Amino acid sequence: MNWTVYCIEAVGIIAVFxxxxxxxxxxxxxxxxxxxxxNIQEKYFETHERIPAEPLSTPALIKKSFAILICIxxxxxxxxxxxxKGFFTAFSASYGLWLxxxxxxxxxLDWVLFANVKRIRLxxxxxxxxxxxxxxxxxxxxxIGMALGLIPCLICGLIIMLFT
Length: 164
Prior knowledge:
By secondary structure, the chain is an all-alpha fold. The chain has one domain (3-27, 58-163). The chain is 73% helix and 0% strand. Helix 1 (3-27) packs parallel to helix 4 (87-116), helix 3 packs across helix 7 and helix 4 (87-116) packs antiparallel against helix 6. It is elongated.
């Protein structure tokens, strides 16, 4: 495995993830409403039409399933480029990328940007500073993300094992 290539891939995946989250979020924060804390959602729905916002709602599941499929394809491709050989190397390296993105999402995007950038606040909730600074909420969701990441990374490991 070429660790220089892997480190370059890590920087690239952070950039791609940031763009994939922040561009739609800045254009239309409602797109990610299912990821906002419940009290922010409820305040928003006091003055706006209620739409499916539960984490297991159809729109959320479609978005997240599509993202998982992209992750499997992207991670498999990145592992091939980095020269991963065998299941364990591909699984552990892809899970390392997953954890990097998960922790970056929690500790920077959620705790810093989400909490402080007014442009990404839902209309009518701009004043809810303490609700946007819920570190525990984002940390718990990061732990869930860590567990969910095992699935695409295991599949990535299997793909590399079978096709390289």
